[in-house]
Write a structure and sequence with these properties.
Order of helices and strands: HHHHHHHH
Number of domains: 1
Radius of gyration: 18 Å
Helix content: 55-70%
CATH architecture: Orthogonal Bundle
Number of strands: 0
Length: 191
């Protein structure tokens, strides 16, 4: 079978890892650790537990990297492992699993002033708190769609939810995020 995704940005790194240069895996970890931890934070509030799940997910990824077929982007395959590892952990320990505040990085092409930094930090705090207050599946799908920039089809590959269900959950999640932010800020947001 011909490999379908010839343009995966991680393809060369993965090929070097498969060829025996296991030190290249650190590039994968560095590239995806923050976003993966954010996804895990959709379900796990305890920072140490979230980091343990992250480590477990990367170990699984490393151990199974030879099974990746480039049928999708590597990032999609990795996020599937991260979500599955998180869900398995959640099943093992149902008590006390909520969302943890996650730091959302906003990048700007201009120099950030002190006022800009304060506004950014305040915005991040509200968004993080809103994620914490949302249903975990809604928070997860928002993170996958907006932060990981995955398409509906790629989210389907990660979560195994139907594409129609993903669209419904994303719609509810956007509405929920908006309502929570209005309550938190006391302002009607202009979108």
């Amino acid at each position: 079978m011909k490999e379908r995704n010839e343009t995966d940005p991680d393809r060369r790194t993965i090929e070097r890892i498969r060829a025996g240069d296991t030190s290249e895996f650190r590039m994968i970890v560095e590239k995806y650790k923050d976003m993966s931890l954010s996804l895990i934070s959709s379900y796990i509030i305890d920072e140490q537990e979230a980091e343990d799940v992250l480590q477990d997910a990367f170990i699984k990824t490393f151990n199974h990297i030879h099974q990746f077929r480039f049928d999708s982007l590597f990032s999609t395959w990795l996020y599937r492992i991260v979500v599955n590892t998180c869900l398995r952990n959640k099943e093992r320990d149902r008590a006390g699993l909520f969302e943890e505040l996650s730091e959302i990085e906003f990048t700007h092409s201009y120099e950030i002033t002190g006022i800009d930094l304060l506004e950014q930090n305040e915005r991040n705090a509200y968004i993080s708190l809103a994620f914490k207050m949302m249903k975990s599946e809604e928070a997860l799908l928002l993170r996958l769609f907006y932060l990981c920039e995955l398409s509906i089809a790629e989210i389907h590959q990660v979560t195994a939810y139907s594409e129609a269900n993903i669209k419904v959950i994303l719609h509810r999640a956007r509405k929920s995020m908006y309502e929570i932010l209005v309550k938190l800020t006391g302002n009607d947001l202009k979108i």
